[in-house]
Amino acid sequence: MGRTSGQVLSSGEAVDVAVGQRLRALRLARGLSLEKVAASTGVSIGFLSQVERGLSSPSLRMLALLADTLQTGLAGLFGGETQGPDDAIVTREQDRPNLWLWRAGITKQLLTPSGTAGGLSLFRTVLEPRASTGDDPFSHDGEEAGLVLEGDLVLTVESRTLRLVAGDSFRFASRRPHHFANPSATERTIVLWVNAIPANGA
């Protein structure tokens, strides 16, 4: 359901608006129509329009599809530019941008400088109790790896479902269909997550 003019946004809805604006800016910068993006992702034009206007919350699966189509990694959806003398080398804790998938209970905090070229991104990924990317697997460009810092992680890659605990690590090609979840009803899971995508033209 859409929101009426003048309605106060919740913090989650405000995140949806910010993400939608970023997606629209990236799409326009690349000269892509909603029709072309819809055809590439298999998502309806109407739903894409709702996402861009902040009226619907995109899942991590959808964001991964959109990132591929818009020729950027997930880090490109965070927006913002690293400022200051440490530009492109250091990201200060207070400057880390967050991508909050509030309906899924997942927060991805970008640890590498934003707004810089390069295909390697490091995230601090937090899954609240019972948080999940959903039952439908997704895939995207590149490769990923990670280290479970706290809690448990159930990771499914193709037909294999693996349970990881703090101290366990993983690596797989992102084109292999995958999804993940926090199986705990009481404890959150924190993962140091790496995404690497090939450079354009590689």
TrEMBL record:
The keyword DNA-binding applies. It holds the Pfam family HTH_3. This is Cupin domain-containing protein. Coiled coil: none annotated. Gene3D superfamilies: Jelly Rolls, lambda repressor-like DNA-binding domains. One of its GO terms (cellular component) is cytosol. Residues 23-77 form the HTH cro/C1-type domain. PANTHER family: HTH-TYPE TRANSCRIPTIONAL REGULATOR (PTHR46797), TRANSCRIPTIONAL REGULATOR (PTHR46797:SF2). Keywords: DNA-binding. InterPro entries: Cro/C1-type_HTH, Cupin_2, Lambda_DNA-bd_dom_sf, RmlC-like_jellyroll, RmlC_Cupin_sf, TransReg_Diox_bact_type. It comes from the Bacteria. GO terms for molecular function: DNA binding; DNA-binding transcription factor activity. SMART domains: HTH_XRE.
